[in-house]
Amino acid sequence: KVLWSVCFKQEEEEEEEEEEEEEEEEEEEEEEEEEEEEEEKGKEKKEEEEEEEEEEEEEEEEEEEK
């Protein structure tokens, strides 16, 4: 009887450890996804800024022609 409860406790602990590891992995994956999203947003912002600059330059050129 004592042996069985020791084995059972070990199994429970192992299961808990596995669950914790899985949770940590999930958290890491979520963090990675968030980082990727932020990078994409940063790229989009840069592109928008570049487009705005180009438009401003075009407007300036048009004004100079007048």
Write the SSE topology:
Elements: H1 2-65
Task: Describe the structure concisely for a colleague.
With 66 residues, the chain is mainly α. The protein has one domain. 97% of the residues lie in helices and 0% in strands.
Identify the overall geometry.
rod-shaped
User: What's the SSE pattern?
Assistant: H
Measured distance between first and last alpha carbons: 98 Å
The major beta sheet can be summarized as: none
Q: How much is the radius of gyration in Å?
A: 29 Å
Chain oligomer state: single chain
Number of helices in the DSSP assignment: 1
Any low-confidence stretches, pLDDT <50, length ≥5?
none
- Total strands: the figure is 0
Please supply descriptive tags for the structure shown above.
mainly alpha, 66 residues, 0% strand
Please describe what this structure looks like.
The protein has 1 helix and no strands. It has one helix spanning 2-65. The protein is rod-shaped and about 100 Å long.
